[in-house]
Amino acid sequence: MAAAASSTSLKHSPSPTTIPCMRHRSLSATFGVTAISFRRSEPRYRRFVVLSMDAKPTILVAEKLGEAGVKLLKDFANVDCSYNLSPEELCTKISLCDALIVRSGTKVSREVFESSGGRLKVVGRAGVGIDNVDLAAATEHGCLVVNAPTANTVAAAEHGIALLTAMARNIAQADASVKAGKWQRSKYVGVSLVGKILAVMGFGKVGTEVARRAKGLGMHVIAHDPYAPADRARAIGVELVSFDEAISSADFISLHMPLTPATSKILNDENFAKMKKGVRIVNVARGGVIDEDALVKALDSGIVAQAALDVFTEEPPPKDNKLVQHENVTATPHLGASTMEAQEGVAIEIAEAVVGALKGELAATAVNAPMVPSEVLIELKPFVSLSEKLGRLAVQLVAGGSGVKSVKVTYASARAPDDLDTRLLRAMITKGLIEPISSVFVNLVNADFTAKQRGLRISEERIVLDGSPESPLEFIQVQIANVESKFASAISDSGEIKVEGRVKDGIPHLTRVGSFEVDVSLEGSIILCRQVDQPGMIGKVGSILGEENVNVSFMSVGRIAPRKQAVMAIGVDEEPSKESLKRIGEISAVEDFVYLNL
Q: Which part of the chain is the ACT domain (predicted)?
């Protein structure tokens, strides 16, 4: 038998060798091997997979990585740098590798994980986005996925400021004009930044760094971010405001929000209409947060004076893209992270994460969950769903501009504390609180780290009930303290936003909002109405939804007393139009309402 001394010499080996053998102990002592018993009809065989002579792990680097990162990897493992692999070549090599590092150009598909035969332990994405990695397949195969979310921060912030200043002084247009043989000083008169209002939309790492630099340029900086702690913003002289206040008062708007269903095309016709005439917009976040057709119209009408864009909905954009070709648009080809320093930083960050994961350390930048024992998952499955949906409901009830900092979770159970592990439930509540307005993937691995990073303190309390411990939980309650609510009745008597739910027949149900008891299935989405309790209310609201063919799955009314104030909870399968929601709000007995998307 010819044994390979390193993974690189096995580059084109189609599969591990199957050897009929009865005496394998001496072989195991000499080489790093795994012996797997199996039956192929008769007789019994064992399969030997050769790892390496020195039993070091093997890391495949499939795209260019900075030298500093490669050196870190080589100090720990055998490193195979093979670039531009076809999908077939990647699937062939992956069975010989313990870890894989990619950038954005390599698709790590389900086929890759299946081809690894269970050997692949870690996938490292050198950058932030992980849309090129099949997370579900990775989790199913017990493979940890890590990324490098922090190394690009300064580079992206600097590029945002570069675009801001270049746009204000027409640098790109004036440069093209001079190179065309023209000298048009009067055409390219710019605007000053000193004293102007900059709205930073998304006050995470990059947004914070942009704000610091803009303050140094003499700008007045405001910001919108539901999770940004007010004290952190105040520490650098930034005022947190609501979304509408930010876009309506700004002279310049700089986008730093993730692309999520909630932020997709958030700058649209409706929101452009709320802006000052002559506003200027910078985007170094994600192209999809802007409705590009709406931006072209806003530029043509003069609502938006100029835009400076590093990202687009489709990249690269078509050559005839009206936005790119617009004379008042400065465009760059997604250069936010493109500095020599950032590329080296990403290489080091992802190398440290991958090496740490291979050593068995808990990865703070993990973006998928470890495998959960099937018996635990089966029992907790409906409560996992309930936990996430309660988190999503609670955070959507927070009014814009309020920073979420303190969350209390209460579990009511007849089981002893030692018999109920709430880590997964707490992680799913954290997921529900953070993911709707963030690009972070929250799971059991990174939930506590992610919450701490955002200044979110989650405390837990257990209520021990009498009765049978057959069911893990009786109910779960989520409270958010020190915030305002967009739905006043969600505020409990003690002053917190409060939602409570339980599992009935395997289905998560919302059973309390504020001080009002309700009973509505957490399937689809929910409309909450605070109303005067009187006959015909259910019929009026149901008729409006029925006219638009919106199916009502559940309806429940909780009230203080007959003919007094009540809360109606309506479960809907489809999202009602804005016009329908407006009509519901115009019903005379309806005092307040909110639509919550689950």
A: 526-598
